[in-house]
Design goal:
Blueprint: H1 11-17, H2 28-38, H3 51-57, H4 62-76, H5 80-104, H6 106-111, E1 118-123, E2 126-131, E3 140-144, E4 152-164, H7 166-169, E5 175-176, E6 197-198, E7 203-215, H8 221-231, H9 238-268, H10 272-286, H11 291-308, E8 311-313, H12 316-321, E9 327-330, E10 342-347, H13 356-364, E11 369-370, E12 376-377, H14 380-392, E13 399-403, E14 411-417, E15 423-429, H15 431-434, H16 442-457, E16 461-470, E17 485-493, H17 500-509, E18 513-517, H18 522-532, E19 540-543, H19 544-549, H20 552-558, E20 562-566, H21 570-582, E21 587-591, H22 597-602, E22 605-609, H23 615-620, E23 623-625, H24 630-667, H25 679-697, H26 723-747, H27 753-771, H28 779-782, H29 788-806, H30 808-814, H31 821-831, H32 833-851
Length: 861
């Protein structure tokens, strides 16, 4: 919780502690000495990482090491083209990763643009305009409407001073400031309730005041947030964790398989050099060197699709992370709501549906204006009231006098002249200040008070409106604030975005838990949560005070049951995100303010608002919603799930194909067959079946039930849902079919037996690519033309294989022989056995799925 040391002290005590006369300010010599003591009024900049160190980081991965070894091996076996392709993949992968890392480091730099370039201060008894970086503790700041606050300061005077703190605290309504000290208590006063303070990074929207600076630069609340952003851990995405695990698994498997094949060949009596080349070639084939490129391209294509839907991904891994999200922690103001006040409810004593008198009072006792361009200008509450009054068609009566709103009176009164010449006192303000000044019985007053209480309990900001006909113009308009006639109550709220409720419902149906985290009042937060469909009933609302009292163990236990957090500060947002992550949840944090930045960076995926949000939030985030529409995140989640499905689809395909090659070579000696393939033929199979078909697979459309499935458990292996068994068994089928073709040719006395096993292995993998596009849906249900790119790729690959077998120049290179049409038919028919096997597996999966209950959507261990 932020320190409230200065907020609870009197203005004179604070000025005395800083040794400054509020009327004269610091003298220039004092200011120069303090500049040396405290430093410039700017946020500390973290030393940026060098580009060289970022590039080195891109190569710290097991799969990258494997690809490097594969490149060396390719050169050894006489395949410099393969080596060049692998090196190109490594360079492209490093370039993409470096670009992402450089962008991620821009979050802290954005904080330096938050301060206004100059500040009005009192020095040496004179008002001066100085560069903001020269402001020092003890300076007397002069505040006016339209100016940015450039340092944390304790108010000395305040006249109708209102400060917009939404970017810092999440408070949707400008805060009315006062020089009166905050009440002392056992708990520290939250920033949002420190009405005697103003903070760097906020804006004055009304009134004026003066304040003594108590903190500058990194010592400000904003500086503390900068520190939190810098200290927030860089979280590895679920995809990065899964690929790291896959890389390690592949590394172990490749070494074991290559060694086993070499030993088996030697025991069989094969030539040692030939077996070494075969083992090395098989090792190269077993390493899916296209995986980094396919993943990068898949994520880039997904990012492009998201951008079309107004979701801009800054880091490519974040594109897939959305598909793994289990919790979406959303800010309220400007994210779920429109960030503008709106009259939501009205109450009148007679229950009239068209309260003309109410519209008259709130429209005339109002300082907001409408420009020639029909834009409302002024305090957000007053602009909302004027908009409400305009809709009711209230008349324009000239104003003769006014008693302005202030923090002590909590009301505003104007004296206006009606068309018949009569004078009317029109008053609006807090119900507890206006109702006691209205005529009527105690019972009538009690009814109005109950109505005001009920509206406030539902999260509305309530104002009472009253009027009185005057006999003449009073010397002081405040004198007319007695014996008033109550005309009604208005309840205002920052309304939810139109699409927010539907978006939240879609998140819930997808097994994602929506949580609101805001600096706003608990009642307001609960009201908005109920309106957008975030389940509040049966779940506690946790405040910043509650968070301060809770230990890490208590928070870890309670965090699964809380759906709304209110009055929280930036450090507490990080605690919430970390507590969820400790429960193995994948957390998305959505926000737009400076106060959201640390949590955006800590979260597995930070989502910032693109329009109207702060540079700091956008800099710390992984994904930016260009239209500020919470519903856009649902579209992004859908795309994220599709992307992961396609990456998993590629891994499933390429590993199964590699498994088929391994089984073919490994089992042949045990069946009394010679070595099935030459090293160059192995590399050809790897080239034509992994690359283009794999890229075509990642263009698959989303499965129909993609948003009805629960999120993947965060620690779930990429081989989950029996994919490992699929790789082994379907790979064995491919190997068996290929060896069958070989046996038919070899034992039948055909000289083309090697071309037959070579061709059957290639065609079996092409059939495999076509049928594994869905793990459960039949290929006949999906249709043969739903992925045109894959269809044409398979046709082109088939043509390339035919050229290798039947075109003389390539025959000499790959040592193939032309098969008869009967032998080719055998190869084609056998390869279709893969379709039968995979479709049978899908049928079994569908039947098992119908028998099993749905899995729980969340992991709460």
């Amino acid at each position: 919780m932020i320190d409230d040391k200065w907020a609870v002290q009197s203005p004179d005590a604070v000025a005395a502690e800083f040794g400054v006369d509020p009327t004269a300010g610091l003298d220039p010599a004092q200011a120069a000495q303090r500049q040396q003591q405290y430093g410039r009024n700017e946020l500390p900049a973290e030393k940026p990482r060098s580009v060289a160190s970022i590039i080195v980081e891109q190569f710290r991965d097991v799969l990258i090491y494997l690809l490097g070894v594969a490149a060396v091996i390719s050169v050894v076996v006489g395949e410099p083209v393969d080596a060049a392709v692998i090196v190109l993949i490594l360079v492209v992968n490093a370039a993409i990763g470096t670009t992402q890392a450089v962008r991620a480091d821009q979050a802290l730099a954005a904080l330096h643009h938050m301060a206004a370039p100059r500040s009005e201060v009192v020095r040496g008894g004179e008002q001066r305009s100085i560069p903001s970086v020269e402001v020092v503790p003890g300076d007397i700041l002069l505040l006016e409407a339209g100016e940015a606050v450039t340092a944390d300061a304790r108010l000395l005077t305040a006249a109708g001073l209102q400060v917009a703190e939404a970017a810092l605290t999440g408070e949707s309504v400008p805060v009315l400031k006062s020089a009166a000290a905050a009440a002392r208590s056992d708990q520290a006063v939250p920033v949002a309730d420190q009405t005697s303070m103003v903070f760097r990074g906020t804006d004055v929207v009304a009134g004026r005041g003066s304040a003594v600076v108590v903190a500058t630069g990194g010592a400000t609340v904003l500086g503390g947030i900068a520190h939190l952003v810098a200290s927030a851990a860089d979280v590895r995405t679920p995809l990065q964790r899964r690929l790291a695990s896959l890389s390690l698994w592949i590394a172990v498997a490749v070494v074991a398989i290559a060694g086993a094949v070499f030993v088996a060949g030697i025991l069989r009596g094969e030539d040692a050099v030939q077996m070494l080349l075969t083992s090395v070639s098989l090792a190269v084939a077993a390493v899916p060197e296209a995986l980094p490129a396919v993943v990068a391209i898949t994520l880039a294509l997904g990012a492009a699709e998201m951008a079309k839907d107004n979701a801009l991904a800054k880091r490519l891994p974040a594109v897939e992370t959305l598909g793994s999200v289990t919790y979406i922690c959303s800010d309220k103001t400007g994210t779920l709501t429109e960030n503008r006040m709106h009259v939501d409810q009205v109450w009148t004593p007679d229950g009239s549906a068209a309260p003309d008198s109410l519209a008259l009072v709130v429209g005339l006792s109002n300082d907001a204006t409408r420009t020639d361009g029909d834009e409302l200008v002024g305090d957000p509450t007053e602009t909302a009231l004027l908009d409400f009054a305009d809709a009711a068609g209230f008349p324009q009566w000239p104003r003769e006098a006014e008693a302005p709103f202030d923090s002590q009176r909590m009301r505003m009164t104007t004296v206006n002249r009606s068309p018949d010449g009569a004078l009317w006192a029109l008053c609006k303000g807090a119900p507890e200040q206006v109702l006691p000044r209205c005529r009527g019985s105690e019972a009538e007053t009690a009814v109005a008070a109950d109505a005001a209480h009920e509206m406030a309990a539902s999260g509305l900001r309530v104002l009472a409106a009253a009027r009185r006909r005057l006999d003449g113009l009073p010397a002081d308009p405040a004198d007319a604030e007695e014996d008033l006639e109550l005309v009604g109550l208005v309840g205002l709220i920052d309304p939810p975005r139109p699409a927010a409720e539907k978006a939240v419902a879609q998140c819930v149906s997808a097994g994602i838990v929506p949580v609101m985290i805001t600096g706003d009042h608990p009642a307001t937060a609960s009201a908005v949560a109920r309106r957008v469909g975030i389940p509040v009933a049966g779940h506690e609302v946790m405040t910043g005070v509650d968070l301060d009292r809770a230990t890490d163990e208590e928070l870890h236990r309670r965090v699964a049951d809380v759906r709304v957090y209110a009055r929280v500060d930036p450090a507490q947002k990080i605690r919430i995100v970390r507590a969820l992550q400790d429960r193995r949840q994948v957390v998305s944090m959505t926000g737009d303010g400076v106060n959201d930045a640390p949590a955006l960076k800590q979260a597995d995926i930070g989502v910032a608002m693109g329009a109207g949000g702060t540079d700091v939030a956008r800099g710390a985030a992984d994904l930016i919603l260009l239209d500020n529409n919470f519903a856009t995140i649902v579209t992004a989640v859908r795309e994220g799930r599709r992307i992961y499905d396609n990456i998993r689809r590629f891994v499933r395909y390429t590993m199964t194909s590699n498994s088929g090659e391994i089984w073919t070579i490994f089992l042949a000696p045990f069946l009394g067959l010679p070595l099935p393939l030459l090293p160059l033929q192995i590399l050809w199979i790897n080239l034509v079946t992994d690359g283009l078909p794999g890229l075509a697979l990642v263009r698959e459309k989303a499965e129909p039930d993609v948003m009805q499935r629960p999120p993947r458990p965060p620690r779930q292996s990429i081989f989950a849902d029996r994919m490992g068994w699929h790789i082994v068994i379907v790979g064995l089928v491919i190997g068996g079919l290929s060896l069958t073709a070989m046996a038919i040719g070899y034992f039948g006395g055909s000289a083309n037996w090697q071309s037959m096993v070579f061709t059957t292995l290639v065609l079996s993998q092409l059939v495999n690519a076509f049928v594994i596009r869905s793990e459960r849906r039949s290929i006949f249900q999906m249709g043969f033309y739903s992925n045109p790119m894959l269809l044409w790729t398979l046709i082109a690959t088939f043509a390339a294989q035919m050229a290798v077998v039947y075109w003389a120049p390539l025959q000499s290179v790959f040592r193939t022989t032309a098969m008869s049409w009967q032998e080719l038919t055998v190869c084609i028919v056998l390869s279709l056995g893969v379709l039968v096997a995979v479709e049978a597996e899908k049928l079994v999966r569908r039947r098992l799925a119908r028998r099993q209950p749905e899995s729980a959507p969340l992991v709460t261990t």
